[in-house]
Amino acid sequence: MEFLLKLDLGKTMPSTGKKVGIVGGGPAGLSAAKELLQLGHEVHVYDMMPEAGGLLLFGIPDYRIDKGRVREAIRRLKDLGVVFYLNTNVGKDVPFAEITKRYDAVLIATGAWENNRIDVAGENLDGIYYALDYVVNHNLLKLGYSNTKSPKIYGHVAVIGGGLTAVDACQILLQNRVESVTLIYRRGKVHAPARRKNIENLEASGVKMLEYTQPTEFLGELERVKMIKAVKTRIVEDREHSRFDLKIVPNSEHLIPADSVLLAVGLNPSIPKMSNTCIKVVEEYRTNIEKVFIAGDALLGPSYTGFALRSGREAAKHIHKFLNEKG
Questions:
Q1: Which whole number is the average pLDDT over 185-194?
Q2: d(CA 159, CA 243)
Q3: How many Å apart are CA 245 and CA 166, to the nearest integer?
């Protein structure tokens, strides 16, 4: 966030008279807003949450980020002229086509909030939730938004996945003192996107790690999950195609107790819908709609904050060039 805090209007270019709308107030949207402001453009940011910040505030626990600094950076952007429209879901509350009419250029910086399903039988049972939703609800409550509804998580909890969202969900579960937490990942901890050290820290805190384990069915009782049917897996080298494949170990089916389940099996970009038009990326930071650009996780898929910040800055430069060419 230091990049956002280093904003000096004394180095800002004269006003261009151009207005840019940014859909999404996460790291990519905020860094683009800062860059565009310094390039002399008027900037309006739309965000679906009660505060700007995106996953910086609502998707990452306190132990991984200083949220006071995030809020300070956003306050500074407001003070220097960036206009924020909060609790506004573009595509639902406001049609995306309307946003494109209001501005000389539009940046989609909506991140990756769409949860992947695991696609096995029983996934719709009560007690099975998405880990990102659980983390976001937890952070909303911590930030003072007490009208949010948290899922009913209790007993033996299984978290399925190997990324940072899975790790963060486990950390919050430990704070909430559920009966037990089991992290299930179809590969080994050495392959986990969250990195081996983070998982080993979880194990030291009391989380049970089941490596090379893949759920095949959720079993319920009175419509709520009670067991996970799973198989063991192994990594097999495919030398012909220079890759490693995941194979199921024969006769390895077993049951795992679970009163609650959190799914953290990947996220997809959250690109707004536009009637009669499918928004697609056609080249670096540009979409198939002439004045609409894209950056951050909406472009890259789930990534680290640093990538999203850099992507927002680069997208802002492309927007500036586009506006100059348009005169």
A1: 94
A2: 27
A3: 23
Please report where in the chains the tokens 């939703």 appear, as a residue.
133
Kindly state the tokens that stand for 107.
Answer: 């940046």
Query: One-letter amino acid identity for 310?
Result: R
**Which residues on adjacent β-strands are paired with residue 156?**
180
pLDDT value at 4 more than 90: no
Alpha-helical segments (H) within 238-290? none
**What is the C-alpha end-to-end distance of the chain, expressed in Å?**
33
**Among candidate residues 95, 103, 127, 86, the one with its CA nearest the CA of residue 42:** 103
Residue 200 structure tokens: 């080993």
Distance CA 269, CA 209 (A): 29
pTM score, whole prediction: 0.90
Structural domains in the chain plus CATH codes: 2-112+269-325 (3.50.50.60), 115-263 (3.50.50.60)
From residue 115, alpha-carbon distances to 90, 118, 132, 268, 320 in Å are: 18, 10, 8, 6, 33
pLDDT digits (tens, 9 = 90+) for 111-162: 999 999 999 999 999 999 999 999 999 999 888 887 667 788 999 999 999 9
